[in-house]
Specification:
heterotrimer; A alpha+beta (307); B mainly alpha (184); C mainly alpha (555); A: 307 residues; alpha+beta; five-stranded mixed sheet; C: 555 residues; mainly alpha; two-stranded antiparallel sheet; binds heme-A; binds dinuclear copper ion; binds copper (II) ion
Chain lengths: 307, 184, 555
C-alpha cells in the first residue's frame, strides 16, 4: 500500500501489515506442506500399491478448525477496533467541513461555511479532523485517495460521511473507484493538503467572485461565454452564469489541471477542449459546439484569466 | 416420487423468488415511502372476498384429488372444474382491482407504490395463470379418459396440486403484506 | 459375493444414441442422453472460454501502456462487462454443469438423469441465453455496466443502448436453465442411487454437486427477481432502481449480491468435488476426513447466504452491519481451510502419481489459498475500505476463479478425458500446458495485487503514467498472452488426444468410483447391472472382491 499520510490511512496500513504477516505464515504453511508431502510421498518406481489407508483423525480435524478460528478471531477484533477509530459515529448536529458531490465525470467541492464552490481540485487543511459529506448527482461514484485512507461510495439519494485527518501538506492523487460510466477512468481526484494559513488564503481567494475580463480578447470571450450555451451548464461567480450542470469555472484559471487531470491548464489546452470536447474526453456530458477558431480562442483566453 | 421431489424443489425456489419480491416491496415502502393516499385506495373488502375464493379453490382441488384417489372420475372432473372457476374468478377480481387503480392514476410507472404493488401482485397473478393452464390441461386429459383409473402418488394431478397450494399460500402472505399490514 | 442389481432403464428412450454415431449434427441437437448433453455443455464452455479470453486479451492490449488509445472507452467498458459475464455465466457455469450431468449418473450407478428431456431443455436454455447475450453486439452495443451492473447506471437514463436489456434477458433465460438442471440433479441424486449407496457413501463429487444444486436453487431466484425488476424499469418505466424518481440504488446491490456471493461458491463447490476425487485416486488413498469434507460444503453453502454485504462495505451501511458481514465472511475461511487441510492429509502417506490432472490439483492448493487469503483481507473492513474496487479485487477474482475453479475443472478434464473419449491425452504435452498456464497465470495476476495497493482502480480503460503502473501492467499483459498461447496448446492436446490418443480402456487410473466400471466412453446405456454398494469406493471394492475371488480359486 502507498505510504499513509493521514490518521485513517496509518491505522489501516498498520492493520494491513499485521494481516500480511499472518497471511504469509498461513500461505507458507500450505506451501511447505504441499512441497514436503509431494516430495516425501511421491510414487517410487512403478509401485502400483495403495498408500496407508488412514482416513481420519479427530484431533487433527479439531486443529484444522481451531487454528484458523483463533487467527480469524484476532482479525475480527482488530477490524472492529480499527473501524471504530476510523469511522466513529456521526452526531446529529455535526456540520460537514466539505460537501463533495460526484458527477459523471467530475467532482464538485462545496465549502458550506465559506460559501466556496469549486471543482476537481480539493484543498483541505492539514492537522485537523475534517468531516466530509459525500453525495452524488447521478450514479454511484466512489471517493478514494490511497494515501489518505478509506474510500466511500457516493450514492445518489443519500449522504455518506468520511472522517479525514491529514498529517502532512502535499498533493495527493486519487481516483473515482466505483465504475460510473464511459469516463470512469478520467474521474481522478487531486487533494491539496495545506497548512491552516495557506488553506485560509486559498479559501478567501476562492470566495471572491470571478475577476473581470482584463483585455479586449477576454472581454469578447466573456461575452461569448454568456451568449453561447456555456452559461446554461457552467457557473462563473459574479456573472449571470449560474448553472451547475458542469464544473464551476469561477477560478478555473487558478487550477493546475483540467478534466480531473487529463490536461494541464493552459490557453492551448482550453482551446483544444472547447473546440472538440468529444475528441478529448469521449462521452463527457459537454457536446461539441460549432464555434469559430477566433471565438474559441477568445473564450479560452478569458477562462485562462480567471485566476 | 420423482415428480413430487421435483415439484417441491421448484416450489422452494419459487418461494424464495417471492420472498425477494416481498422484501423489495417492504424495502421500497421504507426507503422511498409510499404515498399514503395511494396505499389507502386499495380495496381490502373486495379483494378479501376474492382471497376467500382462491383459498376455496385449494379446498376444491383437495376434493378433486380425493375423488381421483377414490377412483371417482366424476368427482375429480367436477371438483377440478370448480377449482378452475374459482381460480378464474380470482384473476377476474384482480383484473378489476387493477382497472380501478389505473382509473385513479395509480400505475406501474406512476409512483413507487404503483411499481411495487403491480410487480408483486402481477407476478403472483402470472403464477395463478400458469396454474390455471396446467389444471386446465389436466381437466382436458381427464375428459379424454386419462384419469379414469387412480395412479400412485397422484401423477400429474398430485404434482400440479402442490404447485396450486403453494400459489395460494403465497397469496395469503402477499395479501397480508400489501393489504393488511399498516404502514410498512 | 454380493449379488448384482439390475440398473433400471432411463424413463425416456434415447432418440439420438441408440442409433449409430453417424447422424452428425442431428444426433447432438436431438440428444437427451446425459453424456451427450454433458459433452455439449463442455463444448459450449470451451467456446465461451475462447470468446471471453479473446476479449480479455484485447483488454490487456489496451492496458499494456499508459494513456493508450487502442480501444475507445465505450468499447472497453463493453468488453470488461462481457468478459466477466461470459466467464461466469457461460464459461464456468456450463463447465460445472457439463461435468455434473455427465458424471453424476455414472458415479451413482444410474443410466441417465431423472428427467432426460428436462436436462436437454436446461442445456438449450443456457445455449440460447448465451446467444442472446452475444447478439447485443449486433443489436447496437453490448452491456456496459459491469458484470454486477449497478443501479442506477444500468437504467435507461445512463445506459441508453439495448445492451443491458440483452444482459437481463440472456441471464434470465440461462438462469432458468440452471435452476431446471439443478432440480434435475437433486432428484437424480436422491432417487437414482444404486442400492447400498447411502448418503454417507456418496462419492464426494456427487456430494458437492448435491449441496451446490441446493445452493443454486436458493440463490438464483434473487437474481431473477432483480433482473425482472430491472426489465420493468427499463421497458415499462417502473421505479425500482431509478433514483431520480424515488427508487433505490442499494436495493439492486442487495438483491444482486444475495445471489452474487452464493454464485461464486456455486462455481467453486463442484471443482472442490472434482479435486476430492482426484486427490484420492492419484495419491492411492481414500479421502481423509470424509465427513468433514462433506459437511464443510454444507457449512459453506449456508454461510454463503450471510455474507453478501461484504461487497458493499464502502456503501455506507454502518459499522454494525459491516461487523456482522465481516464476521460471517471470515467464518467461511474455516470450512474452506478444513477442505484444504484434509486434501493435504489425503496426500500424506500416499503414493502420489504426478499426472497432469494431479499437477493441477496440487497447484490449486497453493493458488487457491492465495486467492482465499486475499478474500480474507477484504473481510477485514478497514482493509476493504482501502482495497475494494481496485486491481487487488481483480487479482482476488482471478486467483479464486482461475487458481480455484479453472484449475479444478482442468484437473477434472484430464482425469475424466479418457472416460469421455476412450483415449488418453499426451501427458508430455499436458505437462507443458500445465507449466505455461501456471506461469502465465501468476505473471498476469500476481502483479495486480501490487497495482491495487498502489491505487489503480479497476474498470478503467486507461491510466495516467504514474510510477510503476506502466511496467506492472505490461508484465500483466505479457502474462495474459502466455496464457493465451497455453490455451491454444490445450486445444491441440484435446484435439490430438480425442483423435489419436492411446486407447484408454475402461479404467486407466485404477479408479475408485463407479464411472470406471463401464466402457470408455460408456455406451448408450451406462450399466446393465451392478453389485450392492457397501463402501465409499464402490468400484475399488468391486475390484478387490474380484481379486480375492481369483486368489481363492485361481492358480
Ligand atoms: C470462486 C469464487 C470465489 C471464492 C471461492 C471466493 C472466496 C472468498 N471471497 Fe471472494 N470474490 C469473488 C469470488 C470468490 N471469492 C469475486 C468474483 C469477487 C468480486 C466480485 C466483483 O466485485 O466483481 C469477490 C469479492 C470478494 C469480496 C469483496 C471485495 C470488494 O469488492 O470489496 C470479499 C470481501 O469480503 C470477498 C471475500 C472472500 C472470502 C472471505 C472468501 C473465502 O471463501 C476464502 C476462503 C479460503 C481461504 C481462506 C484459503 C484456504 C484456507 C486456509 C488455508 C485456512 C487458513 C486460513 C486462514 C486462517 C485465513 N470476496
Ligand atoms: C472464471 C472467470 C474468469 C476467467 C477465466 C478470466 C480470465 C481472464 N481475465 Fe478476467 N474477469 C473475470 C472473470 C474471469 N476472468 C471477472 C468476473 C471480471 C470482472 C468483470 C467486471 O469488472 O465486470 C474480470 C475482469 C478482468 C480484468 C479487469 C478489467 C477491469 O477491471 O478493467 C482483467 C484485466 O486484466 C481480466 C483479465 C483476464 C485475463 C487476461 C484472463 C485470461 O486468463 C484469459 C485466458 C484465456 C485466453 C487468453 C483465451 C485463449 C484464446 C486464444 C489465444 C485465441 C484463440 C482464438 C480462437 C480459436 C478464435 N479480467
Ligand atoms: Cu465516478 Cu467512477
Ligand atoms: Cu462475496
Amino acid at each position: 500500500m502507498n505510504r499513509p499520510f493521514s490518521f485513517q490511512a496509518e491505522r489501516i496500513s498498520r492493520l494491513f501489515h499485521s494481516f500480511n504477516v499472518a497471511a504469509a505464515a498461513m500461505l507458507g504453511l500450505v506451501i511447505l506442506l504441499v512441497v514436503y508431502i509431494s516430495i516425501r510421498y511421491r510414487r517410487r518406481g512403478n509401485d502400483s500399491g495403495e498408500g496407508a489407508q488412514v482416513t481420519g483423525n479427530n484431533l487433527l480435524e479439531a486443529l484444522m478448525i481451531g487454528l484458523p478460528a483463533i487467527l480469524l478471531a484476532g482479525f475480527f477484533f482488530a477490524s472492529l477496533a480499527a473501524q471504530r477509530a476510523i469511522a466513529p459515529p456521526i452526531g446529529p448536529d455535526l456540520k460537514p467541513d466539505v460537501i463533495i458531490t460526484g458527477h459523471q465525470w467530475w467532482w464538485e467541492a462545496d465549502y458550506p461555511q465559506a460559501k466556496v464552490i469549486t471543482a476537481n481540485e480539493v484543498h483541505l487543511p492539514v492537522g485537523r479532523r475534517l468531516l466530509m459529506e459525500m453525495r452524488s448527482a447521478d450514479v454511484i461514484h466512489d471517493w478514494w485517495v490511497p494515501e489518505l485512507g478509506n474510500k466511500t461510495d457516493l450514492v445518489p439519494g443519500t449522504s455518506n460521511y468520511l472522517w479525514l485527518t491529514i498529517n502532512k501538506p502535499g498533493l495527493y492523487i486519487g481516483a473515482c473507484s466505483e465504475f460510473c460510466g464511459a469516463q470512469h477512468a478520467w474521474m481522478r481526484i487531486k487533494v491539496v493538503g495545506e497548512n491552516e494559513k495557506a488553506f485560509n488564503g486559498w479559501l478567501a481567494a476562492n470566495a471572491r467572485t470571478a475577476l473581470p475580463p482584463a483585455d479586449s480578447l477576454a472581454v469578447r470571450g466573456a461575452a461569448l461565454f454568456q451568449a453561447k450555451t456555456c452559461a446554461s451548464c457552467h457557473r462563473i461567480g459574479g456573472t449571470p452564469a449560474v448553472a451547475k450542470v458542469g464544473p464551476d469555472l469561477t477560478h478555473v484559471g487558478s487550477r493546475n489541471y483540467l478534466l480531473t487531470g487529463m490536461l494541464s491548464t493552459s490557453e492551448a489546452n482550453l482551446m483544444a477542449w472547447i473546440s472538440h470536447p468529444q475528441q478529448i474526453k469521449p462521452g463527457a456530458w459537454m457536446p461539441d459546439f460549432i464555434l469559430s477558431r477566433d471565438s474559441v480562442k477568445a473564450i479560452a483566453h478569458y477562462l485562462e484569466s480567471l485566476k | 416420487m420423482e415428480n413430487k421431489t421435483m415439484i417441491r424443489l421448484v416450489v422452494g425456489t419459487e418461494a424464495i423468488f417471492f420472498l425477494c419480491l416481498i422484501m423489495a416491496f417492504v424495502y421500497m415502502a421504507y426507503h422511498a415511502g409510499f404515498e399514503p393516499h395511494q396505499r389507502s385506495s386499495l380495496d381490502i373488502r373486495t379483494t378479501g372476498a376474492y382471497t376467500v375464493l382462491l383459498l376455496g379453490s385449494s379446498l376444491t382441488l383437495m376434493l378433486a384429488e380425493r375423488g381421483y384417489r377414490k377412483g371417482s372420475p366424476r368427482g375429480l372432473k367436477g371438483w377440478l372444474l370448480t377449482t378452475l372457476v374459482l381460480g378464474g374468478l380470482f384473476l377476474f377480481g384482480q383484473g378489476r382491482e387493477y382497472l380501478r387503480l389505473i382509473h385513479k392514476n395509480i400505475t406501474l410507472s406512476g409512483s413507487v407504490f404503483g411499481t411495487s404493488f403491480f410487480t408483486l401482485t402481477g407476478f403472483h397473478g402470472l403464477h395463478v395463470l400458469i396454474g390455471l393452464i396446467v389444471l386446465g390441461i389436466i381437466l382436458l386429459l381427464a375428459f379424454l379418459g386419462d384419469y379414469d383409473r387412480p395412479k400412485k402418488g397422484g401423477g400429474a394431478l398430485g404434482t400440479a396440486a402442490v404447485y396450486w397450494h403453494f400459489v395460494d399460500i403465497v397469496w395469503i402472505v402477499v395479501f397480508i403484506v400489501v393489504y393488511l399490514l399498516p404502514k410498512i | 459375493m454380493a449379488k448384482s442389481i439390475k440398473i433400471p432403464d432411463p424413463i425416456a428412450p434415447f432418440p439420438g444414441l441408440g442409433a449409430s454415431t453417424n447422424q452428425g449434427l442431428l444426433q447432438w441437437i436431438s440428444a437427451v442422453d446425459h453424456k451427450l448433453i454433458g459433452i455439449m455443455y463442455l463444448m459450449l464452455s470451451l467456446v465461451f472460454l475462447l470468446a471471453g479470453g479473446v476479449i480479455a486479451l484485447l483488454m490487456r492490449v489496451q492496458l499494456a501502456l499508459p494513456v493508450n488509445h487502442f480501444l475507445s472507452p465505450e468499447t472497453y467498458n463493453q468488453f470488461f462487462t462481457m468478459h466477466g459475464t461470459t466467464m461466469i455465466f457461460f464459461m464456468a457455469m456450463p463447465a460445472v454443469f457439463g461435468f455434473s450431468v455427465y458424471f453424476v449418473p455414472l458415479m451413482i450407478g444410474a443410466n441417465d438423469m431423472a428427467f432426460p428431456r428436462l436436462n436437454a431443455f436446461g442445456f438449450w436454455l443456457t445455449f440460447f441465453g448465451g446467444l442472446l447475450l452475444y447478439f447485443s453486439f449486433l443489436a447496437g452495443g453490448a452491456p456496459d455496466a459491469g458484470w454486477f451492473n449497478y443501479a442506477p447506471l444500468n437504467g435507461k437514463n445512463y445506459s441508453i443502448g439495448p445492451g443491458i436489456d440483452y444482459y437481463a434477458m440472456g441471464l434470465l433465460v440461462s438462469g432458468i436453465g440452471s435452476v431446471v438442471t439443478s432440480v434435475n440433479l437433486i432428484v437424480t441424486i436422491l432417487h437414482y442411487r444404486v442400492k447400498g449407496m447411502a448418503l454417507n457413501k456418496l462419492p464426494l463429487f456427487v456430494w458437492m454437486v448435491l449441496v451446490n444444486s441446493f445452493l443454486l436453487l436458493a440463490a438464483f431466484p434473487s437474481l431473477n427477481a432483480a433482473l425482472a425488476m430491472l426489465l420493468l424499469d427499463r421497458q415499462l418505466n417502473a421505479h425500482f432502481f431509478n433514483t431520480a424518481n424515488g427508487g433505490s440504488a442499494l436495493l439492486w446491490q442487495h438483491l444482486f449480491w444475495i445471489f452474487g456471493h452464493p454464485e461464486v461458491y456455486i462455481l467453486i463447490l463442484p471443482p472442490f468435488g472434482i479435486l476430492s476425487e482426484v486427490f484420492q485416486v492419484y495419491s492411492r488413498k481414500a479421502i481423509f476426513g470424509y465427513p468433514f469434507v462433506a459437511a464443510s460444503s454444507v457449512a459453506i453453502a449456508l454461510l454463503a447466504f450471510g455474507v453478501w454485504a461484504h461487497h458493499m462495505f464502502a456503501a455506507g451501511l454502518g459499522n454494525t452491519v459491516n461487523d456482522f458481514f465481516s464476521a460471517s465472511s471470515m467464518l467461511i475461511g474455516i470450512p474452506t481451510g478444513v477442505k484444504v487441510f484434509n486434501w493435504l492429509a489425503t496426500m500424506y502417506g500416499g503414493k502420489i502419481r504426478f499426472t497432469t490432472s494431479m499437477l493441477f490439483a496440487i497447484a490449486f492448493l497453493v493458488e487457491f489459498t492465495i486467492g482465499g487469503l486475499s478474500g480474507i483481507a477484504f473481510s477485514i473492513v478497514p482493509i476493504d475500505w482501502q482495497l475494494t474496487d481496485t486491481y487487488y479485487v481483480v487479482a482476488h477474482i482471478h486467483y479464486v476463479f482461475i487458481g480455484g475453479t479453472i484449475f479444478g475443472l482442468l484437473s477434472g478434464l484430464f482425469y475424466w478425458f479418457p472416460k469421455m473419449t476412450g483415449r488418453l491425452t499426451d501427458e508430455r504435452l499436458g505437462k507443458w500446458f500445465f507449466w505455461l498456464f501456471v506461469i502465465g497465470f501468476n505473471a498476469t495476476f500476481l502483479v495486480q495485487h501490487v497495482l491495487g495497493m498502489k491505487g489503480m482502480p479497476r474498470r478503467v480503460y486507461t491510466y495516467p503514467d504514474l510510477p510503476g503502473y506502466g511496467l506492472l501492467n505490461f508484465i500483466s499483459t505479457a502474462g495474459a498472452f502466455l496464457m493465451g498461447i497455453s490455451v491454444l496448446l490445450l486445444l491441440y492436446v484435446i484435439r490430438t488426444g480425442a483423435r489419436r490418443g492411446r486407447p484408454a480402456g475402461t479404467d486407466p487410473w485404477d479408479g475408485y468410483t463407479l464411472e470406471w466400471a463401464t466402457g470408455s466412453p460408456p455406451k448408450g446405456k451406462n450399466f446393465e447391472d451392478l453389485p450392492v454398494v457397501s463402501g465409499r469406493r464402490a468400484f475399488w471394492d468391486m475390484k478387490q472382491r474380484e481379486k480375492n475371488k481369483n486368489t481363492q480359486y485361481g492358480e
